[in-house]
Design goal:
- The protein has 163 residues and is an all-alpha fold.
- The protein has two domains: 83 residues, no CATH class; 41 residues.
- The protein contains eight helices and no strands.
- The radius of gyration is 35 Å and the shape is elongated.
- It starts with a helix and ends with a helix.
- The mean pLDDT is 81.
């Protein structure tokens, strides 16, 4: 072994010991904080559980510094977090058809407003020419639905033209 390798190994050992000491110090300070805010029995909050689950992943000697709960409890918290993560990750997306872009919705509204004689199929054909593939039912949701004045009845027509 060369001198440089020995110095590297010594340097790494010093840093590893210092990191382990810092982790132990952090663990003990966290336990003191829990005990200071508790009256009789240590009341662990959700953030305390998360802290211990992450510390267990980062530091191998976490069991020696743990005094307020059993190590099996920390492992149980870690498993619960793992289960919650994958349950949320594998949860299905929203059901139904995805929303169309605001730009296309405004275009549908504008086309239907400016061309009142166009129906849904014509608007769909024009959108297809522009490169937007939108279903008829979607277009029907976004067309302009301004109410037209009611047409006069036959009674009104005859009354107006009887003379």
């Amino acid at each position: 072994m060369g001198v440089i390798q020995l110095i590297g190994i010594l340097f790494r050992a010093l840093l590893a010991n210092r990191a382990a000491l810092a982790m132990e110090n952090l663990a003990l300070r966290q336990q003191l904080a829990v005990l200071e805010r508790s009256v009789k029995r240590p009341a662990l909050r959700q953030r305390d559980r998360i802290f211990w689950a992450w510390l267990a992943r980062l530091w191998n000697g976490w069991r020696a510094a743990l005094l307020i709960v059993k190590p099996e409890t920390v492992i149980k918290w870690h498993r619960q977090g793992f289960r919650l993560y994958w349950r949320r990750k594998s949860r299905g997306r929203r059901a139904g058809r995805p929303k169309i872009k605001r730009e296309i919705r405004c275009l549908i509204y504008r086309m239907s407003r400016e061309n009142p004689l166009w129906g849904v199929p014509r608007i769909q054909a024009e959108l297809k020419l522009l490169g937007h593939d939108v279903a008829e039912s979607t277009i029907a949701q976004y067309i302009d639905r301004t109410s037209k004045p009611p047409s006069p009845t036959w009674r009104t027509f005859l009354k107006n033209h009887a003379a």
